[in-house]
Amino acid sequence: MKKLISSLTAICLVSSCAYLTHSEENAYSAPEPTLRIASAADSDLATVTRGYMIYQTQCGQCHEYKIADDMSKAKWHQMNWNAGLEKADEKDLLAYLVGVQRIRE
């Protein structure tokens, strides 16, 4: 039940956020999830979508919504730990971030 409430809260928060339009996105912004990102992450669209929602609701609490191209998985793991994310959320978030990094290569 706690996960359901957390998921619904995340969905509500994400849906109320203002998103960048495609023309406003730059090389470091957080693009909305796509099949291309999911494929690049060797994942599925549902997983990267959950990762994107976590990114939008958690990561902006500490810094801008930018995804660095040169961030290691160890550094992402450290930030996940600082944010207090559960392992499942960390996995989904990392899938999204890795997918975004790979499509930029």
TrEMBL record:
GO molecular function: electron transfer activity; heme binding
Domain of life: Bacteria
UniProt xrefs under InterPro entries: Cyt_c-like_dom_sf (IPR036909)
Protein name, per record: Cytochrome c domain-containing protein
Organism: Persicirhabdus sediminis
